UniProtKB/TrEMBL annotation:
This is Ice-binding protein C-terminal domain-containing protein. Keywords: Signal. Residues 251-274 form the Ice-binding protein C-terminal domain. It holds the Pfam family PEP-CTERM. The keyword Cytoplasm does not apply. Residues 1-20 form the signal peptide. The keyword Kinase does not apply.
Length: 275
């Protein structure tokens, strides 16, 4: 039986690594079951704690949970310097504008779409889909760390500017009930689709199995018998994409099996990065 790492301990490491935000406000406006539901970002009635705003040099924490499909018109405030945008609960959120951006979390089954984004010392945790028109790095910050959960993906229509200031790490689903028990197969997963990379190469970091156990980074693309490469992965740039190849083994359904949460993973990666 797989065991889950201590989430409380991991989150403690995460919390101590972030600045306190000036305010927390959650979306309370209309929830849309279909496309075409547009709401004004500057309408205080759409927020639990008023329109998101900065307090001094701290960005706000902005939360979209269980919203359905919504389009938010207007520009979201600068969330950098300790602030964040979080989308969860199978929500599909499109924001008309958002330039300077802090941390971003997109949960399983959710999608966040933004226009032009410049990240500043950002932790971007993706179990869902993040769509950007174009993105870059605020030179006054410490880059952007992309942490991918089992189903996370980043799509960028245009170039990723300052690509050398981005890093990727995450989780891989190394077992599946879709594969016969005792069998193994290679899987290739796309992490980033982009219009190109400018200003260096994305740093290709560490990936773990879904329960948080370590995997070994291969030195080249794996071939031959997949069973001979159990516990390995190979992450690489392929044109304008970043992909990862790994081995999936067959598993018998096991109700007690647990997966490391994405927030737990993000905290773990931050702790390893500081070590």
């Amino acid at each position: 039986m797989k065991k889950t790492l201590s989430i409380a301990a991991l989150l403690c490491g995460l919390c101590t690594g972030l600045h306190a935000a000036s305010m927390v406000t959650a979306w309370t406006g209309g929830a849309g079951p279909t496309e075409g539901n547009t709401y004004d970002v500057n309408n205080a009635g759409n927020w639990s704690n008023g329109v998101p705003n900065r307090n001094g040099n701290a960005g706000p924490d902005v939360i979209f949970a269980d919203t359905g499909t919504i389009n938010v018109s207007g520009s979201l405030v600068d969330t950098s310097d300790g602030g964040s945008i979080t989308v969860t609960g199978n929500s599909t959120v499109t924001v008309g504008g958002s330039r300077w951006t802090g941390n971003v979390t997109v949960g399983t089954g959710s999608t966040l779409s933004l226009g032009q984004v410049d990240f500043k010392s950002s932790l971007i945790t993706l179990d869902g889909t993040l769509n950007l028109n174009v993105c870059g790095i605020d030179p006054g910050g410490d880059g952007a760390r992309l942490v991918f959960g089992i189903g996370g993906i980043l799509n960028v229509d245009q170039k990723m500017w300052g690509a050398g200031s981005f890093s990727v790490s995450g989780l891989l689903a190394t077992t599946s009930t879709d594969v016969a028990a005792g069998e193994f197969q290679f899987v290739t997963r796309t992490l980033i689709n982009s219009g190109g990379f400018d200003g260096g190469d994305v740093s290709l970091g560490e990936f773990l199995a879904e329960d948080g156990s370590s995997l070994t980074k291969a030195s080249a693309k794996m071939e031959g018998n997949a069973a001979d490469h159990q516990g390995q992965y190979y992450i690489y740039k392929d044109g304008n994409t970043i992909k990862v190849q790994y081995v999936v083994g067959g598993a018998v359904p096991e109700p007690a099996t647990a997966t490391l949460s994405l927030l737990g993973l993000a905290a773990l990666m931050m702790r390893r990065r500081r070590a």
